[in-house]
């Protein structure tokens, strides 16, 4: 019966560990998305994504220059 008790304790320990690690990632996402498309207000991570976005969503417009 020792193994049965160890299994139950391990399951409880894993459940507690998994419960603590879950949480909201909204703050981390807000920090990562820094560039905003001036036309449709989509948030993007970097200028390369903005250029790709302009190519697919706004093909007739020119993307703004990269501001360093």
Tell me what you see in this structure.
One of its GO terms (cellular component) is cytoplasm. Residues 1-19 have a biased composition (Basic and acidic residues). The protein has 68 residues and is mainly α. It has helices spanning 2-21, 26-32, 47-57; strands at residues 35-36, 43-44. It has a domain at 32-67. The protein contains three helices and two strands. It is 56% helix and 6% strand. The longest helix has 20 residues, at 2-21.
Shape: rod-shaped
Low-confidence stretches: none
* Secondary structure: number of strands: 2
Radius of gyration: 23 Å
Q: End-to-end distance, in Å? A: 65 Å
DSSP helix count? 3
What is the N-to-C succession of helices and strands?
Answer: HHEEH
Sheet-strand content, in percent, reads 5-15%
Range of helix content: 55-70%
Structural class: mainly alpha
Question: Which strands sit side by side, in order, in the main sheet?
Answer: 1-2
What is the typical, i.e. mean, pLDDT?
A: 84
Largest beta-sheet characterization: 2 strands, antiparallel
TL;DR of this structure?
Helices cover 56% and strands 6% of the residues.
Q: How are the secondary structure elements laid out?
A:
Elements: H1 2-21, H2 26-32, E1 35-36, E2 43-44, H3 47-57
Antiparallel strand pairs: 1-2
Keywords:
single chain; 68 residues; mainly alpha; two-stranded antiparallel sheet; 3 helices; 2 strands
